[in-house]
């Protein structure tokens, strides 16, 4: 009798709960486990992105209600089927006119806009250049497109230039220089500083690259008319302009604006546009009203600027280590993650909400409080925040 052939033991599949438990343990050990909490109604909000106070503005809320009454609770289909409603069309036209672009296209969220726009424009054959501190959705968009992202030092035109030149020295097998796409946040979401857009535009022109700016935190806030950090720049300078509605406009959703041919291409090829239900018309109607306020009430931006200036003046007087930002995003970098959480907890005990931002959202050793100002804050609100910060420092002292 021949020896029976030993059967190779089947590899036992790793049970899912083991995988989940291990992932949780690693995260927790790194001190990076996050918890959600229902935001108390009474909390003084210095954490959100409602820079103009439009999320709670009665006119915007009423427009949402009217939008739902008139067009329905949902759009019931994608844009290319039957979900593209009059209210979407009007918002796109108004946006294009306001931004000085031929066309604008509305997406359901900024994350989806960035995934779709980059996937529609880039592929394996595209060299993508991104600022090191770009938003996660931009990094993910390039990954989804199968394009390799080369990350240049934050706001460093020389480093970008070096990467652009280097990519040109390397030719692929067909000896074609790859198409090039340069991507940057406008206002950086965790630092509050602003991209040097003219420098990026010049580099893009020199190297026949396409420039994409995601000004999620600048739209509604910067520029005389509120168009953002690209104010005064044309589609020739900034061919791909993305902005979101969930920040200064107080609603939700996003747009990409540019030349008609570019926007039509994105409409055809962006999978996160084609294969999703159109934005609920209530949100679109609310955004239209928010846009009217952004255009018609520049005093909101003036009040916001005053609040930022007041906060910065007083924070300097208290010797708080504020970053150089002049936008409503005012990071207070504490470095240590536990310390950052302690400060946030102390503020929380004072009824004040600020963002406690830790890696991987920011680089290691740069944990920070992300304090945001709004036109809706009063001087008394800002004084309360400063009192809270003073208490944090007092209780933190050895
Ligand atoms: C918030 C943000 C997004 C994502 O927008 P959502 O509408 O919240 O999905 C994209 N880019 C930047 C720079 C952002 O700050």
TrEMBL record:
Catalytic activity: 6-carboxyhexanoyl-[ACP] + L-alanine + H(+) = (8S)-8-amino-7-oxononanoate + holo-[ACP] + CO2
SUPFAM superfamilies for the chain: PLP-dependent transferases
Entry binding sites for pyridoxal 5'-phosphate: 110-111, 189, 217, 244
Biochemical pathway: Cofactor biosynthesis; biotin biosynthesis
Enzyme class, broadest EC rank: transferase
Entry annotated with the keyword Transferase: yes
Residue sites binding substrate per the record: 34, 135, 361
Domain of life: Bacteria
Known EC number: 2.3.1.47
Residue numbers carrying N6-(pyridoxal phosphate)lysine: 247
Keywords: Biotin biosynthesis, Pyridoxal phosphate, Transferase
Cofactors required: pyridoxal 5'-phosphate
Domain Aminotransferase class I/classII large: 44-388
HAMAP family: BioF_aminotrans_2 (MF_01693)
Record note on quaternary structure: Homodimer.
Family named by the database record: Belongs to the class-II pyridoxal-phosphate-dependent aminotransferase family. BioF subfamily.
PANTHER family, per database record: 8-AMINO-7-OXONONANOATE SYNTHASE (PTHR13693:SF100), CLASS II AMINOTRANSFERASE/8-AMINO-7-OXONONANOATE SYNTHASE (PTHR13693)
Function summary: Catalyzes the decarboxylative condensation of pimeloyl-[acyl-carrier protein] and L-alanine to produce 8-amino-7-oxononanoate (AON), [acyl-carrier protein], and carbon dioxide.
Protein name according to UniProt: 8-amino-7-oxononanoate synthase
Gene that encodes it: bioF
